[in-house]
Amino acid sequence: MKFIFVDTNAWIALNSKRDHWHTKAVEINKQLLNEGFRYLTTSYVLDESYTGLRKVAHSVVVDFGERIQTSRLVQVIRIDEDIENLAWELFKQYSDKQFSFTDCTSFVVMKRFNLIQTFTNDRHFEQMGFQKLLK
C-alpha cells in the first residue's frame, strides 16, 4: 500500500473553493488517487484543518470530518505521548526555523512511516528534506 502524508493546507485547499490552491489541490488529489495512493494524516493536522475550515462554514467542517471518519482511503494517526515527546525534541532543536509544533509531530510521523512526499505547500517540509507536491 502506498501512502502520502496530507498536511493542513492541502485539506483546506481541497475543501474550500475560495482557497488560492483549490484547483491545483483537486488536480493533485485526482492524480494521487488514480495512482493508488492512500492518505496518512494526524489528529493534530485535522484539528488545524477543522479550525481553518471553520472560517469557510460550519457545514463544510462537518462534511469534511464525516468523510474523514468514514473513508477507507485516509488513515489518521492519533498523536500520542511518544510522538509528542519526539516532536518536542525536534522543536527545541530547530530554533532557527519557524516550525510549528504540529509540523514537528508531522515530521515524526512521516519519518516513522518512511514517507518522503507530502501533499502540502508548506515550505517547512522541504526544510526538513521532504518533497512537497502542492506548488
Describe the structure.
The structure is a single chain. This protein is α/β, with parallel strands linked by helices and 135 residues long. The protein has one domain (2-132): 5'-nuclease (Rossmann fold, 3-Layer(aba) Sandwich), CATH 3.40.50. It is 56% helix and 15% strand. The protein is built from 7 helices and 5 strands, in the order βααβααβααβαβ. The chain has helices at residues 8-15, 22-34, 43-53, 58-70, 81-93, 101-112, 123-127; strands at residues 2-6, 37-42, 74-77, 117-119, 131-132. Strands 3-2-1-4-5 form a 5-stranded parallel sheet. The longest helix is centred in the N-terminal third of the chain and has 13 residues, at 22-34. It is globular.
Name its key features.
single chain; 135 residues; five-stranded parallel sheet; alpha/beta; Rossmann fold; 56% helix
Short synopsis of the structure:
The protein is 56% helix and 15% strand. The chain is of the alpha/beta class and 135 residues long.
Which superfamily, in CATH terms, is the homologous superfamily? 5'-nuclease
Radius of gyration using CA atoms only: 14 Å
Topology, number of strands: 5
Task: State the strand order across the main sheet.
Answer: 3-2-1-4-5
Number of distinct helices: 7
Q: What sequence of helices (H) and strands (E) makes up the elements?
A: EHHEHHEHHEHE
Uncertain spans, ≥5 residues at pLDDT below 50? none
Domains (count): 1
Helix/strand structural class: alpha/beta
Main beta sheet strand tally, sense and closure: 5 strands, parallel
**What is the helical fraction, as a range of percent?**
55-70%
Mean pLDDT comes to 98
CATH architecture label name: 3-Layer(aba) Sandwich
* CATH fold category name: Rossmann fold
**Strand coverage percent:** 5-15%
Principal-axes geometry comes out as globular
Q: Give the terminus-to-terminus CA distance.
A: 25 Å
- Level-1 CATH class name: Alpha Beta
